[in-house]
Design a protein that fits this description.
Number of domains: 2
Oligomer: single chain
Number of strands: 15
Structural class: alpha/beta
Largest sheet: 6 strands, antiparallel
Number of helices: 11
Low-confidence stretches: none
Strand order of the largest sheet: 2-1-4-5-6-7
CATH architecture of the largest domain: 3-Layer(aba) Sandwich
Length: 573
């Protein structure tokens, strides 16, 4: 229960800088009187609602709350307690002040003013402005009776009275969390799409690398096959050249003996030629000389003829031998020429053999290089680029699985939040609680109406639409009644809400303020009946009645406060 103790203010409305203090818990009933414009409403209605909620009860702009003479230092303090804790709310304009004290210690102000106010309403007062004005104040100026509120506003008031606003707050938080879950799921969907695209790119890259690897292996195998074919052809060619060389070398074995024979024949030819020349010289000598040039003896014809015959015979022998040796030399030379040609062929064959061996060796080295390269590419795992890409693919697949599992968790949480949300909707837990209390509400309303002499059957349904039945009348709505009857209904509703709040200990408070209720709508009978109601209210209830009929009501109240205006400032007389 909230127990209001006092309200203090200065430079507020028509009140000056001296400061005014009104105690709210000293008397059970207090009559507040004064002429129009002397500050009654400022002192009780506007000061309390401004102090607690930052706005006046009446439709007054915030700057107009500042005293028009002093124009600054507008300040309000509201003192109240909840259980064993004492609270004081300080609020001011020029300078702007908003402070909440608990047991004389300032509550942390790190939050924004809007959040600070929300904390005051939700965590301390457990009431907002609308529910406060429905439970604590019944006014005739800017007050909007419960039955004239919209369906949503009616629900807000009832939820505050039943202390089930927490479900609405929970639903708001839940909706925020559900929205965040949707955003998270959407973000995960985007991540999954991106992950899928990345996996597709990497898989294509792996496939291309494998294809490129296979193409390269095929190219190397083809090249190795061609190289092996060339080696085989070269080896076959080399084998033929070696056989040819062997044959040529076999043929060339005779060359040296032929050269020796040629040399021998040439020597013999020179000897024969020398002998022939000598024979020719001697023949010529004997033919040309008649005597010996050395001894001068005469050479006889018989001697000459005999010598010439012998010399001619030797000459013929030498000429025959010369011809024979020339034939032999020519034959040997021909054979030597033939063998020389064969030698050249052998040299050429040897050169070809060396070239062939060199080519085969180069081809074998190249084939070995191709074989080693093929061996290194024979398994994909040995390809570092493919292996690294596959590792990246494994990481991406692992990330995808994690994202899918996280999405499933969020989806399950979303389903759970949806179930909880259904419970927290107006048609959920709150509706069940309201249905539970509706009979009691209707019972209390009808009781208070009967106590005020208004004999009608008033009924609120789950949507807070009213049905009012009166004897000998059809069903009526709230707007069908006179102002006095409406006022009785408003009073009955206010008292019913207070009683429900007291039972629930939610919006329960010791303060009840009635602004000019007795001045316009209530007739004398209604006034008497309501005064009886006030007498049976809880001993913890302190009622303030603002009225111009002070002369008619003063004897019905324990205390009276009168506001007067002296000069330009209001004060308590």
């Amino acid at each position: 229960m909230i127990r209001f103790h006092k309200v203090r203010f200065r430079n507020f409305g028509s009140f000056g800088n001296n400061g005014t203090e009104i105690h709210l818990d000293r008397h059970r009933t207090t009559l507040v009187s004064g002429m129009n414009g002397h500050g009654k409403s400022f002192a009780l209605l506007d000061s309390i609602t401004f102090g607690l909620f930052g706005k006046p009860f009446r439709k007054i702009n915030i700057p107009q709350l500042i005293n028009s003479i002093n124009e600054k230092d507008c300040y309000v303090e509201v003192y109240f307690s909840i259980g064993d804790d004492e609270y004081c709310v300080h609020r001011g304009i020029k300078p702007k002040i908003f402070e909440i004290y608990k047991n004389e210690e300032l509550i942390d102000q790190n939050a924004k003013a809007k959040d600070y106010q929300r904390m005051l309403e939700e965590n301390i007062l457990k009431m907002n402005y609308k529910s406060f004005t429905q439970v604590v104040i019944l006014g005739s100026s800017s007050f909007v009776p419960f039955m004239q509120l919209t369906a949503a506003d009616r629900r807000d008031v009832i939820e505050d009275v039943l202390d089930i606003q927490v479900f609405s707050n929970m639903n708001t938080v839940l909706k925020s969390r559900a929205s965040l879950k949707k955003d998270e799921i959407k973000e995960l969907d985007n991540d999954l799409t991106l992950n899928k695209d990345r996996i597709s790119v990497v898989e294509n890259h792996v496939e291309k690398l494998i294809q490129a690897n296979e193409t390269k292996i095929k190219s190397l195998e083809d090249e190795l096959s061609v190289t092996d074919g060339l080696i085989e052809k070269e080896e076959q060619k080399l084998s033929g050249l070696l056989k040819e060389q062997e044959k040529l070398l076999e043929q060339m074995k005779e060359l040296e003996s032929l050269k020796e024979k040629l040399n021998k024949y040439q020597n013999m030819q020179r000897l024969i030629t020398n002998s022939l020349n000598k024979s020719i010289e001697r023949i010529s000598f004997f033919e040309d000389n008649e005597s010996c040039p050395t001894c001068t003896q005469t050479i006889h014809d018989e001697t000459k003829e005999g010598v010439l015959e012998k010399l001619q015979s030797k000459k013929d022998e030498f000429e025959t031998a010369s011809k024979d040796i020339e034939v032999q030399i020519e034959n040997v030379q021909t054979k030597i020429d033939d063998l020389t040609q064969i030698s050249r062929k052998s040299s050429e064959c040897h050169s070809k053999i060396m070239d062939s061996k060199s080519g085969i060796e180069s081809s074998r080295k190249y084939a070995k290089k191709l074989t080693e390269e093929l061996k290194s590419m024979s398994t994909e795992e040995n390809d570092s680029s493919i292996d690294e890409t596959r590792k990246n693919l494994e990481v991406l697949n692992s990330e995808r699985q994690t994202l899918i599992e996280k999405k499933e968790e969020l989806r399950e949480e979303g389903v759970l939040l949806g179930c909880v949300g259904n419970l927290l909707k107006d048609t959920g837990i709150k509706s069940k609680i309201i249905r539970h209390y509706l009979p009691l509400m209707n019972k209390l309303i009808n009781k208070f109406l009967a106590d005020m002499g208004f004999f009608a059957q008033f009924h609120l349904d789950e949507n807070f639409n009213e049905t009012i039945k009166s004897r000998f009348r059809d069903a009526f709505s709230y707007m069908s009644f006179s102002e006095g009857e409406k006022m009785r209904i408003d009073l009955a509703l206010l008292l019913a809400w207070r009683e429900i709040a007291r039972l629930k200990n939610s919006a329960n408070t010791n303060l009840l303020i009635l602004d000019e209720v007795f001045d316009s709508s209530l007739d004398s009978v209604g006034t008497e009946e309501f005064m009886k109601l006030m007498s049976i209210l809880s001993a913890n209830t302190h009622v303030f009645v603002i009225s111009h009929k002070s002369d008619q009501l003063v004897d019905k109240f324990e205390n009276q406060i009168t506001f007067v205006k002296s000069g330009n400032f209001s004060k308590v007389s």
